[in-house]
Amino acid sequence: MATFLVYDDIYLEHNTGMHPENSKRLINTVQHLKQSSINKKLTWLKPRAATFEEIAYIHSPNYIKSVEEVAVKGGGYLDADTVLSQGSYEAALYAAGGVLSAIDKVMESGNAFCLVRPPGHHARPNHGMGFCLFNNVAIGARYLQKKHKIKKVAIIDWDLHHGNGTQEAFYDDSSVLYISLHRYPYYPGTGHEDESGSNGGKGFTVNFPLDYSASRKDFFSSFEKALKTAESFKAEFILISAGFDTYKDDPLGGLGLEVEDYFKLTEMTRTMADKLCKGRIVSALEGGYSLDGIPLCIEAHLKALV
Fold this sequence. Notes:
- There is one protein chain.
- Helices cover 38% and strands 16% of the residues.
- The chain contains nine helices and ten strands.
- The protein has an eight-stranded parallel β-sheet, with helices on both faces. A two-stranded antiparallel sheet has the order 3-4.
- Strand 9, helix 8 (259-277) and strand 10 (281-285) form a beta-alpha-beta unit.
- The longest helix is centred in the first third of the chain and has 21 residues, at 88-108.
């Protein structure tokens, strides 16, 4: 069973300068993986660009156009944290499209990790924030439903920060289960356990907020509960918002996780996916800002996928 690694140098065209979310995250990771024994077991996959219509599965047409306009004018800021360069719009199309390319392959067989940027899980339907332009994983969930007729998609988000954009996209929706483990209270301020969906989506948003005193044991205890929730949902496909800023040395926070913990998280998820949905997993990079740590954490994630 193949493990696909989605990557293209187009992601480096999202030029953020000295911003924490910068191209060195991917440059360092690619260099490390090419020198690693894991590389022989990976099938590298070039992404396509998502179409305007595919981005509009989640985002309003006016917002999509506004991102393009800022980039065409040479770049700027969506908010205090979220910077665009001239190449950012195209890179963002390929970041979302990378997830769609992976989904098409994994529907046949295997699993995939998408080494993409800009990240996505803070991007709300009508505006970007938190380093995110388009919500790659959320777009992937809708694509699974529209193109591949998958009825039940589970999104597991283990980034340090709550994926407020993903939560908002599916808050009224019982066909997409959104599960997040994150530090709380912390940016972006959402993700309390009382936030569980509304109307027909009540109970299909599941938050596991972890405070500053939470240990690795607490994290894994919550993660076991998260997987039981996905299992009872009977997910037909698993998407992972794979943030590596829970790593102990991450400069933006951390939750004390060690490199080997990402192997364990992934292995636990894969065991469940093998049981539920023929092992169908597509994960996409979200956060992770330790330039030394992120290649090691991603390698551990890939080893478990392989």
